[in-house]
Amino acid sequence: xxxxxxxxxxxxxxxxxEMLARAQNNYQQVKRRHSIRKFSDRPVPQAIIEQxxxxxxxxxxxxxxxxxxxxxxxxxxxxAQIREQAEALEQAFYAGxxxxxxxxxxKPLGTNAxxxxxxxxxxxxxxxxxxxKEEQGExxxxxxxxxxxxxxxxxxIQALHHAGLATLTHTPKPMSFLSKICGRDNDNxxxxxxxxxxYPADDATVPxxxxxxxxxxxxxxxx
Length: 223
Prior knowledge:
Keywords: Flavoprotein, FMN, Oxidoreductase
Domain Nitroreductase: 30-199
Low-confidence stretches: none
Protein name: Nitroreductase family protein
Pfam families: Nitroreductase
């Protein structure tokens, strides 16, 4: 392990006017990112997914241990298995396991136990968190795992949107079936999230409720 440093030589400084313009443009772009539940089955080249996952891998993380693993799934057979397992869990969830308050909170979004997008979308990306890393034959503890993988997941969603794809986050509980289906069934990893990615279907919609975002003065203060 090296404690050497190199000069920061790839930082680009912009004028303040350009910084503001870039920030405004980014906000306008990211406002167009919506979680959708109807996907086209149009194929998306693997090279695009690879670049987005590489972007996710640049996320800041505890001690640079990079405690994540991504499984990009395009196999129709595996996607069918995931849908079958996920819908079985969702049936129980919507039948009452979630509780009345949670189910009432979901009603404006129009969600239910049916998850056809798990088969229709060209790509599912299963994200796994890792408790430990192997370094020179030794097991090392990973730090800030949940936070690190959360940041990387955000990077991935942004990268997919920036590339021109629609996305949806999916977190069936429990998600242990993903470990088995993806061949990651070990005591070091646990499923963190499933990202659905692809083109929106022609009849894709966005719930009005999902467009209701808090204004700046409700999410931030300057002191």
